[in-house]
């Protein structure tokens, strides 16, 4: 392969949309509808219907604007199985992050009214900075660089970095084996985690996780590094690829928020702690991402107020 170091691909592939259930590990096809696109049939509506509504919420610039508008503008993806994927029948987003967005809107407004705005790794901060959206909930890793320009409430979920390879690959047994190899990553947290762990790896950058996945399937790269939530939901459901046992680093996912409204951030933190304490968070995981990932078994968050 002749890719230059940190080359950035922006082409998409329809191959990333095909999820083959044969060979999946720890997945119950009956719960998922038994279809190739079965993960889009994940349904969080029952959990959201029972979710809490915030009481005596304070006034703040963003909170007042959201209340006046009557819906929450939230950015994310619509292609990540178990987390946020469009149901091809209903057209609604389904998954853990989609449910988090609906629960957050219900906590603020008393109803799960969300206006979804699709974003990628290179647009999330811009959408928050220019107030295109009120929040970003999209396996969005909290990093020091990002915290300089946006606020975060959370983490609401913490995972690690993982490695996916082609089925039958025997030369990558540890993170050290990625040295000198071309590895698909998204720019930002995934690329930073890879280079911290393996400075001599050769990142091949793609805007979307679906593009990383397609590149691995098509053998345009030798491995793919991302957080285990993304890796498991995509590569763990395809008969041509496999998720290795390699784990490193830590990816704390937060709700991205605009800077300048600390009251709004405090309310978002209270929301996360509330759904963790009353069991809503666990129910949401079990009905969405937990159907895809049977190995992570994450603990509900407990965030110190004032973080």
From TrEMBL:
<feature type="domain" description="Solute-binding protein family 3/N-terminal">
    <location>
        <begin position="71"/>
        <end position="292"/>
    </location>
</feature>
<protein>
    <submittedName>
        <fullName>Amino acid ABC transporter substrate-binding protein (PAAT family)</fullName>
    </submittedName>
</protein>
<keyword id="KW-0732">Signal</keyword>
<dbReference type="GO" id="GO:0006865">
    <property type="term" value="P:amino acid transport"/>
</dbReference>
<comment type="similarity">
    <text>Belongs to the bacterial solute-binding protein 3 family.</text>
</comment>
<dbReference type="InterPro" id="IPR006311">
    <property type="entry name" value="TAT_signal"/>
</dbReference>
<dbReference type="InterPro" id="IPR051455">
    <property type="entry name" value="Bact_solute-bind_prot3"/>
</dbReference>
<dbReference type="GO" id="GO:0005576">
    <property type="term" value="C:extracellular region"/>
</dbReference>
<dbReference type="GO" id="GO:0030288">
    <property type="term" value="C:outer membrane-bounded periplasmic space"/>
</dbReference>
<dbReference type="InterPro" id="IPR001638">
    <property type="entry name" value="Solute-binding_3/MltF_N"/>
</dbReference>
<keyword id="KW-0813">Transport</keyword>
<dbReference type="Pfam" id="PF00497">
    <property type="entry name" value="SBP_bac_3"/>
</dbReference>
């Amino acid at each position: 392969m002749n890719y230059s170091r940190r080359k950035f691909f922006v082409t998409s592939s329809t191959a990333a949309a095909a999820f083959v259930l044969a060979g999946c590990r720890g997945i119950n096809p009956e719960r998922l509808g038994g279809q190739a696109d079965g993960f889009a049939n994940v349904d969080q509506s029952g959990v959201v219907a029972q979710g809490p509504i915030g009481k005596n919420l304070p006034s703040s610039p963003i909170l007042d604007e959201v209340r006046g508008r009557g819906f929450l503008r939230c950015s994310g993806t619509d292609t990540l199985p178990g987390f946020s994927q469009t149901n091809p029948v209903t057209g609604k987003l389904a998954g853990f992050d989609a449910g988090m967005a609906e629960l957050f809107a219900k906590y603020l407004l008393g109803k799960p009214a969300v206006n979804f705005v699709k974003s990628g790794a290179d647009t999330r901060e811009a959408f928050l900075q220019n107030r295109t959206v009120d929040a970003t909930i999209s396996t969005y890793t909290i990093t020091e660089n990002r915290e300089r320009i946006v606020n975060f409430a959370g983490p609401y979920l913490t995972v690690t970095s993982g490695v996916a390879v082609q089925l039958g690959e025997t030369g990558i047994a540890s993170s050290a084996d990625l040295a000198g190899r071309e590895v698909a990553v998204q720019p930002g947290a995934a690329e930073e985690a890879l280079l911290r762990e393996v400075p001599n790896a050769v990142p091949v950058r793609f805007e979307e996780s679906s593009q990383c996945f397609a590149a691995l399937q098509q053998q345009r790269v030798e491995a793919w590094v991302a957080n285990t939530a993304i890796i498991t939901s995509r590569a763990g459901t395809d008969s041509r690829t496999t998720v290795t046992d390699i784990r490193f680093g830590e990816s704390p996912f937060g709700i991205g928020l605009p800077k300048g409204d600390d009251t709004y951030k405090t309310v978002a933190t209270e929301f996360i702690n509330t759904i963790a304490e009353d069991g809503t968070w666990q129910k949401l995981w079990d009905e969405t991402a937990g159907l895809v990932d049977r190995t992570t078994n994450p603990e509900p968050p407990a965030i110190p107020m004032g973080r």
